[in-house]
Amino acid sequence: MAADSGGGPRTTGVRVGPIDLAARVDEALAVQAVAFGLSAGEVEVRRHIVLRHLDHPHARALGALTPEGRLAGFVYGMPNDRGHWWSTVVEPYLRATGSAHWLDDAFVITELHVHPDFQNRGLGRTLITTVTDAVAQPRSILSAIDTESPARGLYRSLGYQDLARQVLFPSAPKPYAVMGAPLPLRRTR
Q1: Are 126 and 64 in contact (CB under 8 A)?
Q2: pTM of the predicted model, to two decimals?
């Protein structure tokens, strides 16, 4: 069934819905590698991270599938846990801006990627609004490379605001911004 949250994808036949991301992890990481520019070594490291995240009992994953079954994009996330690595890295930055409370009772968008062949058609918007519509938390947080990009523009259009900028993750070559939005996400562009 096609998802219509957030306006629905403008790609004929692409359907957004739940997927077994663990079973499709290599396909998802291939999408991420092309969309995000990852090396083979980075993909292998992320493979283990994704599989570990998916062990969380409340992790949610959605995929955008073409009529042929090709994965055009995916999103996954889980309720935040202050003991998780990501949370421990961003917490000091959020504390410095008075935003550390955003780590409580929040759903983290861990990854959202759309293959370049399918970008700018509403798939990212549909994926993120659909996954967050199904959670109990009152807000969502995420991190994105701290540059003006189409991804950051999408997040802002959905109601995400910068909570902290110039966040440095170990081994990440570029700084990130942590963004947060109340749920449900905004539907107007």
Answers
A1: yes
A2: 0.92
